[in-house]
Amino acid sequence: MNDDASAASAQRKRLYWHSRRGMWELDLLLVPFLEQRYDELDERDQAAYRALIGEEDQDLFFWLMRRDWPEEPERRRIVKMIVEHAESTDNSAYHGL
Q: Where does the record place a coiled coil (predicted)?
């Protein structure tokens, strides 16, 4: 495996584990989005996702449960993408997370 593929694989594993929050509601939104949509995102949206998962769980919960929206436009955009993905996709395979 070359260094680029190895680095990409390591980054993907980190993203996966940072997407696993330990709060079931967040896991059900973040993990399927990462696995099904992240690779299709442009670099700007991928960067927004990486920044988003660095946020506190309570903020993520409020945003992803649509109780509030992030003020920052890039963050609001990625949150809306995750919510829309969850609403339009059958994620029943992830209920065992």
A: none
Q: How many CB atoms lie within 10 A of CB 47?
A: 13
Contact 28, 90 (CB under 8 A): no
Fold classification of 3-89 is: DNA polymerase; domain 1 (1.10.150)
One-letter amino acid at 38 equals: Y
Q: pTM of the predicted model, to two decimals?
A: 0.85
68 in Cβ contact with 58 (< 8 Å): no
The domain segmentation of the chain, as residue ranges, is 3-89
Q: What is the pLDDT of residues 23-78, one digit of tens each?
A: 889 999 999 999 999 999 999 999 999 999 999 999 999 999 999 999 999 999 99
What does the DSSP assignment read for 50-85?
HHHTTS-HHHHHHHHTTSS--SSHHHHHHHHHHHHH
